[in-house]
C-alpha cells in the first residue's frame, strides 16, 4: 500500500514538471529609446542612430552656411536618404528626427509641399496653397527651398582571423538649389566588432 501511494505521488510530481508554464506578464519589458541598451552587438540601436544624427545636426547648425541666406530662416527640402546597408533602417523616423531639430533651431525651416519626384509630404497643404493663389489671381507665393538635404548610410566589413569590424557611416550633404553645389557635408561613423567563436569539443 505504501509503495502504491509513493508511486502515485511520484507520478503527480512528474506531471507537474511536464506541464507547460504559462507566460507571465513580465515577459515584455519597456525600454527607454534613449538608453544604451544593446539588442544585437553587430547592429545599431535606435539610440546610436539618434546620437549620430544629433552630431550631424550640431555640425550643420554650427556651420556658417545657414547664415548666408539674405532672408533667413533658410528653407530646406528633404531629398533622398539612401540605405546602402544590410540592416533594416527606418529612414523616415531618422529623417523626422533631423527635421524636428532643424525646425526648432530657428535657423532653418523644412517644407512639406515640395518633395522628391514632385510628391509633397503634405498634399493637402500644397493643394490648399495652390487653390488660394488661383482664387486670388496671384502669382506663386510658395517659397521654393534654398537647400536640399540628401544622404546615405553605408556599411563596410573588415575581417581578420575570427574578428569582423563592422562600420556604419551616416553621411549628409546640403546642396544650394540655385547653384547645385554641395555647400556642407559631414559624416558620422559607428563601429562594431563581431567575434566568431572557435569550434569547441
Q: How is the topology of this model organized?
A:
Layout lengths: L1 H17 L27 H17 L11 E11 L6 H15 L2 E3 L12 H13 L11 E14 L2 E14 L4 E15 L6
Helix pairs in contact: 2-3
Largest sheet: 5 strands, mixed
Query: How much strand content do the residues show?
Result: 25-35%
| Helical segment count | 4
Overall SS class: alpha/beta
Q: Under CATH, the topology is which?
A: Rossmann fold
> What is the string of SSEs from the N terminus onward?
HHEHEHEEE
Radius of gyration over alpha carbons?
A: 28 Å
Helix content: 25-40%
N-to-C CA distance: 49 Å
Number of domains: 1
Question: How many β-strands, per DSSP?
Answer: 5
**What is the approximate shape?**
elongated
Name the strands of the widest sheet in spatial order: 2-1-3-4-5
Average pLDDT across residues? 74
Low-confidence stretches: 6-11, 13-35
CATH-level-4 superfamily name: ABC-type transport auxiliary lipoprotein component
Q: What is the CATH architecture annotation? A: 3-Layer(aba) Sandwich
Q: Can you characterise this structure?
A:
The protein has 201 residues and is an alpha/beta fold. The protein has a single domain (43-195), classed as Rossmann fold (3-Layer(aba) Sandwich). The chain is 31% helix and 28% strand. The protein is built from four helices and five strands; from the N terminus they run H-H-E-H-E-H-E-E-E. The chain has helices at residues 2-18, 46-62, 91-105, 123-135, and strands at 74-84, 108-110, 147-160, 163-176, 181-195. The protein has a five-stranded mixed β-sheet with strand order 2-1-3-4-5, covered by helices on one side. Helix 3 (91-105) links the parallel strand 1 and strand 2. Helix 2 packs parallel to helix 3 (91-105). The longest helix has 17 residues, at 2-18. It is elongated, with a radius of gyration of 28 Å. 14% of the residues are buried.
Amino acid at each position: 500500500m505504501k509503495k502504491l501511494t509513493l508511486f502515485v505521488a511520484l507520478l503527480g510530481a512528474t506531471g507537474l514538471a511536464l506541464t507547460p508554464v504559462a507566460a507571465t506578464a513580465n515577459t515584455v519589458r519597456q525600454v527607454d529609446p534613449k538608453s544604451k541598451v544593446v539588442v544585437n552587438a553587430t547592429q545599431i540601436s535606435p539610440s546610436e542612430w539618434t546620437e549620430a544624427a544629433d552630431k550631424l545636426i550640431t555640425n550643420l547648425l554650427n556651420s556658417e552656411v545657414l547664415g548666408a541666406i539674405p532672408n533667413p530662416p533658410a528653407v530646406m527640402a528633404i531629398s533622398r536618404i539612401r540605405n546602402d546597408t544590410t540592416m533594416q533602417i527606418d529612414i523616415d523616423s531618422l529623417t523626422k528626427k533631423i527635421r524636428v531639430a532643424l525646425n526648432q533651431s530657428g535657423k532653418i525651416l523644412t517644407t512639406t509641399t515640395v518633395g522628391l519626384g514632385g510628391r509633397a509630404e503634405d498634399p493637402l497643404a500644397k493643394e490648399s496653397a495652390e487653390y488660394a493663389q488661383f482664387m486670388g489671381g496671384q502669382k506663386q507665393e510658395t517659397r521654393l527651398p534654398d537647400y536640399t538635404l540628401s544622404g546615405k548610410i553605408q556599411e563596410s566589413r573588415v575581417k581578420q582571423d575570427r574578428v569582423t569590424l563592422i562600420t556604419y557611416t551616416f553621411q549628409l550633404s546640403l546642396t544650394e538649389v540655385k547653384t547645385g553645389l554641395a555647400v556642407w557635408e559631414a559624416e558620422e561613423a559607428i563601429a562594431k566588432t563581431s567575434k566568431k567563436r572557435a569550434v569547441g569539443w
